[in-house]
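Support case: user asked for a sample of complex input and structure output to validate their parser. Sending the pair below.
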Amino acid sequence: MENGSFNNLPEESAEDLYENAPFGYVSFLADGTIFKINKTLLNLLGYKKEEVVQQKKIQTLFGIGGRIYFETHFFPLIRMQGFVKEVNFDLVKKDGSVFPALLNVNQLSASKPGIFSYRTSVIDITDRKKFEKVLVESKEKAEKATRAKAEFLSTISHEIRTPLNAIVGIGNLLHKTSLNDLQKEYARILQLSSENLLELVNNLLDLSKLDAQKVKLEERVFSLKNLLEVLIHSFKIRAAEKNIELKTEFPEGLPDHLLGDPVKLNQVLTNLLGNAIKFTGKGFVKLEIDLQKSEKEKVGLQFSVSDTGIGVPADKLEAIFQEFSQASYDVNLEFGGTGLGLTISQKLLQMHGSELKVESEEGKGSKFSFFLEYKLSNMAPEDHRRTRVNEVMAQSGAKILVVDDNLTNLFIISQYLQEWKLDHTTVNSGAAAIDAIKKKHYDIVLMDLHMPKMDGYETSTRIGELEPNNKPVIIALSASGRGDVSLKMSRAGISVYVPKPFDPAELQDIILHFLNENSKDKPGEIAVSSTNPDTKPSPDNLSTEDGKGAFSLTRLLQVSNQNPDILQKLLRNSLNSVQRFKEEFTDAATQSDSEKLDDLIHKNKMNLHYIQAEKLADAVESYRKLLEDSEAHQRDLPNKKQEILHEFEKIISGLKAIKREDLS
Amino acid sequence: MESKTTSPLKRNNVKIFGKGTQPMLFAHGYGCDQNMWRYVYPAFEKDYKIILFDHTGAGNSDETQYSFEKYDTLEGYTEDLLEICEELGLQEVILVAHSVSSMIAVLAANKEPQRFSRLILIGPSPRYINDGDYQGGFNREDIDSLIEALNSNYLGWAANMAPVIMGNGEKPELGQELTNSFCRTNPEIAKHFAKVTFLSDNRQDLASVEIPTLVMQCSEDVIAPKEVGEYVHKNIKNSSFSLLKATGHCPNLSAPEETVEIMKEFLQKSPAA
């Protein structure tokens, strides 16, 4: 280009730049009176300059909500800080239509002291708002979908757990029968695989709950020593099976009574120890605790689990904390598992504001460690001496009240309590529970939540009111959910929630936990007794010819510990309740009363569960749905009813046909 | 375990200064915090003990003490104000209240009349919504549209929108230092306070006020129109009325000199008992 040719270009004035700027500009006085406005904004608003300048106040360009906002928020702000950034106002055009705009205000330098004026840039953000809306909507949609998936996962896991528990139970029973070597090996694999599967499902359930943020940290007093002892006791057995040593190293003066969440700590340690034993072929696994911080009111503990196992390659160290990832495909083939355990542990520790760290050398071993702080409980430390659980329980002198409207449940629970030598009373309604509490003090109440008339929540609340200073510990037992104490429960004063069908050992642990808390003057160190006394082999054929496919006795055998006397009582109870159910069903069906039927289904849920009469349970449920359904399907009802009555008959005659001698 | 109740001085970010002994307590209005008194209180520092505070949920108050239950009526704020007086052992208090705080002041004065010597109400309104013959200036729908405005128009749009879209953990890299630094309020609290403020009705409480009161009314105030100020004056027995030249709803910010002058005049006219 020739020198000087720039001189010939047209001159751009500041005025021109102002008028045609990509933003709207408007300047106003302290009272809002507009004294200058650019073309861009006039075009946006549809006004002529003379209609606005000295005619309108800035606030009259806003809707009424915006005007209030201007007076209460916007104006004080510009007056105090001299600028306002990014306020979104809806501006009203001359034709009455509205568009969203983003305003940035700056104070103009005063021409006279005390006279304030401001210039605002106005950006039309109609498009941005649209994108924003779509973005927020799709985010919400995605979150909703994730939640739905998590819920589905949680439901399905729960549904899988129930039959899986049965498979595990049968595997255990099968193992105790006389088998040849090959059968024994099959049974062992069955047992192992089903246990792995159960663990996987439990992990999935935990993970989905963690992801759905349904897991909350609890704060309660717990005994660290008890927790460690139970843990070590069970892992000693597993380590011994693999011929590896389980070492422990705890510091002098390890505090015992801590305030925190023992369940989460136990879960993390269980996981780490389980992994360590799984991945260690020879050598040892060591659980170490280091007292890193000891203050008057709190302690900082460094936990570590080290092993002499296969280790983790350096490049896989990060990946092992991710969901569904193990160090290698081969690892999965050889050792099984899902790799969810570490993810769950990591998430549980993150909830504590901590982190799981790993050091490892391939082929030499690994060390997982984490740091947790606990408040010290001001309860006096216990003097522990080694005693067996049952003795502790028996010596505790604790009084237990069992409340359940289902007689079979009552019977089964009382069987266990008897075995644990615990003094207990059973009642079959909330009202009866209240009466019992009025008569004498109980230390622990085992409470069914779903009862007619006064349910478990209400009964618990009333018990709390009766004995505000010496409240018994209330342990809820219920067939829905998985072990979390809901807000509703904690409001009713329920401390723990044990899902039904319950694991006797778990219930025993929980009762023990509270007995320990209650009886500090009765020292006793705890080791979990090795389970099940020797049991009789189970009968080969568990269902009779008549009831074939309609029900099964495996579950009853399990809960009765194969004691023929107990089993017979259970059978009698079951027979009675099925007969009553049949009559009540017939009534409800005749009256087409779906609500009543719903009640019946709930009331009989556990009964049918014990005798595994799933077919009947499903049929009654679908009958109830049909009743609620439109008339279109109602002509199917008579057939369906016949089917159900037939199923009832099959079970009743089947149960009747079982002979005393079949049971031993 | 019982949680310790925080001191009202900490909860409400109470600031005390000034050379005088008679306390002058300033209560800020809706939408702002104690900063809004910055051009007014210096004129009184020499002769009075100045006490500034933020309503719970506003400014630098302890937001964790906010409860949707307690502050669901103006009584919750009234309790706070009286607690501050109690904690500091204030007597003969000149209570200067702007906007919604005017009614908080009225409630406080009715509850503990012995504590206060004078009320100065700036832009008071006992009821914002029209009701039969009473003209508060707004319809119910107007208030709903304010709530709507608060939903989307919140100060610092980008800084507030970003977390909604990107999640709370992500700090938007948008010039944080440029965001508005005064009168920041948690949007949820701001919305709740707006509802409580604009839906309140304290017309019945005016008649019980016995304390000498000054009603300061701005010209052209959309929030509290002149008729409303006159209504307040008419219904508080011992009150004087002053119409300011200042426009808008915040004369303490837009016309501090005039505001101070009228306040001083009132305080001289009716000296403390």
